[in-house]
Specification:
Elements (H helix, E strand, L loop, with lengths): L1 H25 L4 H41 L5
Helix pairs in contact: 1-2
């Protein structure tokens, strides 16, 4: 359940970022500004994706360690 909550939260955050990006694109007044906006969004998206992946791995690790400590062995 912890992983599902994590990935649903991550999806929600990434969708909000995409919506904000679309709003920014709608406000661009020239092609150069649009290109800058696209480039910045691409950079932010890669960093956000890597951060979410790191958090996901941490969630899996924390959950597995919690199960291991509580029951003496990992669940099958």
């Amino acid at each position: 359940m912890a992983m599902y909550r994590h990935w649903l939260g991550a999806t929600s955050r990434l969708l909000r970022d995409q919506c904000a990006h679309l709003q920014n694109l709608a406000e661009c007044d020239d092609p150069l500004n649009m290109l800058v906006c696209q480039t910045e969004f691409a950079e932010k998206s890669v960093l956000a994706g890597l951060d979410e992946l790191r958090r996901g791995v941490d969630t899996i690790t924390d959950t597995a360690c919690g199960h291991f400590a509580a029951g003496g062995s990992l669940p099958q």
